[in-house]
Write a structure and sequence with these properties.
164 residues; Immunoglobulin-like; 2 domains; four-stranded mixed β-sheet; four-stranded antiparallel β-sheet; 28% strand
Length: 164
């Protein structure tokens, strides 16, 4: 009985240290791997995309838009593609699309990205916002090792990303 009384402080200390380390690791993981998105996209719901004229882009002009990451590949509720614009002025994404090697295509709605703006494209269903777009699929699309392309309305590939 006396030996148990000597172990109690060490047992409580062990529980406290384990909880603190686990909390610190989760905090670090959340800060390191969760993408912070700047809310600088605008969706125009008042005018259908078909009515708006398509912007003609010079295929040789450099447009500073990137697929930053594909997160949660092969897990429907977690799958997301982050697209970021780092150019000057506004970038109209109407008519642009994301495409994988299996020819799965997500077509962007009427959407304007401002400098340093970003948008997340989720595979699952949900309510579109200025920073989150939802594809509405019932199964995952992105697979590890495949290439994802961001293609403008003139079918020029503007960015690619290999899913980790």
């Amino acid at each position: 009985m006396k030996d148990r009384q000597h172990w109690l402080p060490f047992l409580l200390l062990n529980i406290f240290v384990s909880a603190a380390v686990t909390g610190a690791i989760l905090f670090w993981y959340d800060r390191t791997y969760r993408q912070v998105v700047i809310p600088s996209a605008q969706i125009s719901a008042s005018v259908p995309a078909e009515v708006l004229p398509a912007t003609t882009l010079n295929p040789d002009a450099e447009i500073l838009v990137d697929i930053v990451s594909v997160i949660g590949a092969e897990t429907l509720e977690a799958e997301m593609v982050l697209v970021r614009y780092s150019g000057e002025g506004e970038l109209d994404l109407a008519g642009w699309h994301l495409e994988d090697e299996d020819k799965n295509v997500f077509l962007f709605p009427q959407l304007t990205l401002y400098p340093k703006g970003a948008v997340q494209v989720h595979t699952a269903a949900g309510q579109d916002t200025v920073v989150d777009l939802f594809w509405g699929l019932r199964q995952s699309v992105w697979e590890s090792g495949e290439e994802v392309s961001l293609i403008d309305p003139q079918e020029t590939v503007r960015a690619t990303y290999i899913v980790p």
